[in-house]
Amino acid sequence: MTAYRLSSGGLVDRSKALSFTFDGRPLRGFAGDTLASALLANDQLLVGRSFKYHRPRGIVSAGPSEPNALVTLGSGARSDPNTKATVAELYAGLTARSQNRWPSLGFDVGAVNGLLSPFLGAGFYYKTFMWPRQLWEKLYEPVIRRAAGLGRAGLERDPESYEKSWAFCDLLVVGGGPAGLMAALTAGRAGLRVILADEDFRLGGSLLSETETVDGGAAPAFAERVVAELQSLENVTLLSRTTVFGWYDDNVFGAVERVQKHVAEPSAKLPTERVWRIAAKRALLATGAEERPLVFGGNDRPGVMMAGAIGTYAHRHGVSAGKSVAIFTSGSSGYRTARSLSAKGVTVSTIIDSRPEASDAVPHGVRVIRSGSIVDTKGRQRLSGIVVERSGFEELIACDALGMSGGWSPVVHLACQRGARPVWSDALKAFAAPDVGDTLRVVGAANGVYTLAGCLRDGAEKAAAIAAELGFNAAAAPLPVTETEAEPSFAALWYVPGAKSKAFVDFQNDVHTKDLGLALREGFGHVEHAKRYTTSGMATDQGKLSNINAVGILAGMRGVSPAEVGTTTFRPFYTPVSFGALAGTSRDVHATPTRKSPLHEWGKKHGATFVDSGLWFRSAWFPRAGEKTWRESVDREVLNVRANVGLCDVSTLGKIEVFGPDAAEFLNRLYCNAILKLPVGKARYGLMLREDGFVFDDGTVSRLADDHFFVTTTTAMAGAVMSHMDYCAQVLWPDLKVRFCSVSDQWAQMAIAGPNAREVLQQLVDEDISETAFPFLSARATALRGGINARLFRISFSGELAFELAVPAGYGEAVADQIMEAGRAHKICAYGVEALNVLRLEKGLLTHAEFDGRVTPDDAGLGRMFSAQKPDFIGKHLSARYGLTAADRMQIVGLKPVDKDKDIRAGAHLLKEGMKPSTLNDQGWVSSAGYSPVLGHHIALAFLKSGRERYGEKVAVWDKLRDHEVIAEVCDPVFVDPENKKLKA
Amino acid sequence: MASLITCPHCGVRPKEEFAIRGDASLIRPAPSASDEAWHDYVYVRANPRGRTVEHWHHIAGCRRFLVVERDTVTHEVYSVVDGTAAAREARR
Fold first, then answer.
1. CA–CA min distance A328, chain B (Å)
2. Is position A238 within any domain?
3. Which residues of chain B neighbour A692 with C-beta distances below 8 Å?
4. pLDDT of residue B90
5. Do B84 and A734 count as a contact with CB atoms less than 8 A apart?
6. B83/A730 CB distance under 8 A
7. Residue A485 lies in a domain
8. Do A730 and B3 touch (CB under 8 A)?
9. Residue A132: what pLDDT?
10. What is the mean pLDDT of residues A764-772?
11. Smallest CA–CA separation between A110 and chain B, in Å?
12. Is B33 touching A (CB cutoff 8 A)?
């Protein structure tokens, strides 16, 4: 075969030559070429190796159904594997590489698999590599995957940028061929908001390869005129290079626009790809029809192509697929293609027609063989001839290109993606779109209308009907004049008997007719089973060409109609979509929001090391010169707080303002402890349960006025508590007069803790904050000197004399600076969440490390907070269940290593000394652990069976994951100042 | 599942703005109700094929709990009403 560029014609710009490379070989094409048409123009027929047998493969189609011509575009981080050459737009500097071959495309060692093919039938891998089982993951699968492969994904960071966007319209038209263009024109003129999306870089669909005239002129010129008018309409959006890949509930469509896939150097101002979510009141599927390949011996030889594709390359790209073309057809379309090729000056030698008779016009000089079939093809890496069989006689006919035309299948994927199955039509000899209601209708060839005039009319009429439904005053756009054309007819020919070599059904996955026979024999004849057993239709093309023949072959073997076999399930995506496009901008640091505290800059000034903590970015510790490890900094911060004073940013706590005459009653039902009679000006520790009786969250409740509370939640549960409160107020108790809102981001909050805290803080407030005037658990609004509104709370998470001061977020940094200044003489230091954690651990105070969803108030040593007197609160009833009150529940205890040099690790399990590690002997687990600089050794909080009765006992702390074991003594969980003398100083 | 939910307060919004809590037909038992009633309320859920009512929290919108009546097979949404109104109605 010798493919070549025709001397004239086509929609390529012959004045714009583009150079590109294929496997390093420099080649040239024109603007308007696809990579496939440019490869053909350079007579590069061999483009890939097949998946399993590594057979040489060439371009088959001229569109998204392509099974063979998969290449890797670009290089390095910008490489794009498994790109279909048939839809890749050519640009200057494009580099393409073939895949699945070693050492080279022309000489591929893997082709030895072809010789072994008698042993490599469907299911071969599963049967052969079953035993020994453990070798599957380690040996067989990696080796098989390496040998049977597609392109490789790069491991480098993807430098492209992506985005997502919503769009809304009255009418979405999917497909810009004759039906789609007429529909968009009709709807656009009527004033509907129209979006027309087409996967091609040029709108026009089949009009671009059409030989018939429209309105007396060339069909592509007509398409151009319609597109120009659509472009001029403000209510019409044209999205070329855009594949509508999915149809979702409520008529929302997913589409991917390849904004800059066709340029060598993408502009930083635009995304490379954009995912659209299109909410459409109505949609028209104008996705055309797919020509069917024929299943005959040697049908995968490079040079065997879809007949229509040969026509497209000739008309649209000005490329002839060969010097001497033969057509194998089961219907009239093969003749139509032959006529159009002859008209273009491409030599068509022979038409092999499977039917005994036909009335189709034959171009001059073309031989027709009726009742003929092809049983084999000749040539190695390119076609040199075909073996034609007729009435038992074989004849070798030389040709260098062969077009297959097995009839047509409407492209109905999108209509079938929401559960409805396609419907077999005896008239069309194809699966047609199901009736899915008014919001999505199928039009043109996708609707089984195959003439040009019919498509134009169908598009115009359906759009006019939709316009009327939506209340627009519409008339179908006047139909252009077309030539008279007969409806195409064809005989269903699922496979051609008498094959002398492998007859492929699925080119990409190397499935041939015998594989389907084997599947049926072995009990996998159901279409879904046969798919998995043979992998037919499971490749990246999802069987766009092959599925219909597989169904037909299964039907033939089972002796039933294709209607009875049915199809496999259609799901998004219609064609593959890159992960990058689906992720959009949500990647790297943008995958989740970065929440910075209002005191972030203050922390930075003091040299904070920051840590990701939930959604927040928090100051973890503040290293000083000379400190080599984080522990040194944390120990210093802890000791300084215990001896002098420290300032810690606690702004990340959830903060909620609660108002209303029933605010107290509402909170009383939310917390397990009593809130109703909390005096104004007081704060209280509060514990919330889930309805199942386990602890949900803890925090503080402060009453600022009779009908005004301020509650805090833990940082981690801020969102969940807010949602819980919404639910309780709106659904459980809608009659309570209460309103609340989150103010987490409105207040900067800092803890000032340590023996010198009062001296420091008193310098900032006029109000008397002495022990008598502002005792432990006081809470009130105040004003700082200088007039800033603030709230002051006498609460402590460290066991020290401590205050929490909240100021409007914008003043946070300035106030923190003032406190540091005021504290300088009192040896103030900044301390971070690590020190905060050690301080609370030393005091046996709890966090969500302890409240892990399996802990009751009593387990946590907070049983006294549970107010059984209250008539009702969330979690009350089920807290009384036997299992939650059993005496052998795991209870919070403290642990001290017997050997003071040893550490204890969170997550370790507790065992009785000398007992064998097992779940049966499990006595509990360590929730928090750390080094106490005050005590000079490690300490831990743990949950231990009946723990409160076991102080003084020694247990083994066993951590299998880190292979660590230590003996520890059980003790009270409060390690420092158990009498709370410092707290109330 | 629906792609779009018509919030009675905010209009047509994408489903990503909502958090689904589950069965909206449950009524919280009285504190004195039997253990069985509480057990059913907290733990037992139907997994209906067909019509179902659920609480959808418009977490990135008005923050109202909505009652969405929809079909788990066809994904059709029959109605969306405010949860407070529905709760009052249910108690009547």
1. 44
2. yes
3. 42-43
4. 82
5. yes
6. yes
7. no
8. no
9. 63
10. 94
11. 46
12. yes
Question: What is d(CA A321, CA A310) in angstroms, rounded to the nearest whole number?
Answer: 6
CA dist., res. A445 & res. A485, Å (int): 14
Please say whether the beta carbons of A19 and A92 come within 8 A: yes
Residue B66's domain comprises 4-91
Q: What's the whole-number mean pLDDT along residues A949-977? A: 95
| Domain ranges, residue A212 | 162-289+410-469
- CA–CA min distance A374, chain B (Å): 47
Q: Contact B75/A249, CB-based, under 8 Å?
A: yes
Q: Which residues of A touch B31 (CB under 8 A)?
A: 871-872, 876-877
Q: Does B38 touch chain A (CB under 8 A)?
A: yes
The dihedral built from the CA positions of residue A528, A531, A532 and A534, taken in this order, carries a sign that is positive
Considering only CB atoms, which chain A residues are within 8 Å of B21? 727
Q: Do A877 and B29 touch (CB under 8 A)?
A: yes
Average pLDDT, chain A: 94
Among A725, A742, A759, residue at a domain's last position: A742
Count of structural domains, chain A? 5
Q: Which of A699, A717, A742 is the last residue of a domain?
A: A742
Q: Is the pLDDT score of A603 beyond 70?
A: yes
d(CA B38, nearest CA chain A) in Å: 7
Kindly list the distances between the CA atom of residue A85 and the CA atoms of A35, A60, A70, A97, A598, in Å, as whole numbers in the listed order.
5, 10, 6, 10, 53
Give me the pLDDT at residue A750, please.
Answer: 97
Which tokens belong to A273? 């790809």
Q: If we measure between CA atoms, which residue out of A571, A575, A549, A572 comes closest to residue A562?
A: A549
Looking at beta carbons, which residues of chain A come within 8 Å of B90?
A: none
User: Minimal Cα–Cα distance from B60 to chain A, Å?
Assistant: 11
Query: Using the beta-carbon criterion (under 8 Å), do A731 and B57 form an inter-chain contact?
Result: no
Q: Is residue A869 part of a domain?
A: no
Number of domains in chain B: 1
Query: Given an 8 Å threshold on Cβ–Cβ distance, is B65 in contact with A726?
Result: yes
- How far does A737 lie from chain B, in Å, by closest CA? 13
User: Rounded distance, CA A916 to CA A905, Å?
Assistant: 19
Residue-wise pLDDT tens digits, A83-138? 999 999 999 999 999 987 777 777 777 776 666 666 667 666 566 555 566 666 66
Per-residue pLDDT at A1 = 46
Q: Quick check: A734 and B87 CB within 8 A?
A: yes
Q: Are residues A751 and A623 part of one domain?
A: yes
Secondary-structure percent of chain B, ordered helix, strand, coil, rounded to 5: 25, 35, 40
Task: Give the list of residues 6+ apart from residue A795 with CB closer than 8 angstroms, or none.
Answer: A683, A700, A777, A779, A802, A803, A804
| Residue ranges of E strands in A240-372 | 242-248, 252-257, 273-285, 289-291, 304-306, 319-320, 325-329, 348-353, 367-369
On whether any CB of chain A is under 8 Å from the CB of B9, the answer is no
pLDDT (tens digit per residue) in A250-278? 999 999 999 999 998 899 999 999 999 99
Smallest Cβ distance to A730: which of B28, B59, B64? B64
Together in a domain, A819 and A775: yes
Domain match, A639 and A768 both: yes
**Residue in A with minimal Cα distance to B22:** A727
A452-469 and A178-190 helices, crossing angle to 10°: 30
- pLDDT level of residue A354 (50, 70, 90 thresholds): very high
Residues of A in contact with B87 (CB under 8 A): 730-732, 734
Instruction: Tell me: do A641 and A600 sit in the same domain.
Output: yes
- B4·A249 Cβ contact <8 A: yes
CB A261 within 8 A of CB A241: yes
- Rounded mean pLDDT, A741-764: 97
Percentage of the residues of chain A whose pLDDT score is greater than 90: 86
A156 found inside a domain:
no
Q: Find the helix or strand (DSSP H, E) in which A410 lies.
A: strand A408-410
B62 touching A (Cβ < 8 Å): no
Same domain? A822 vs A905: no
- Position A125 scores a pLDDT of 59
Same domain for A758 and A637, yes or no, is yes
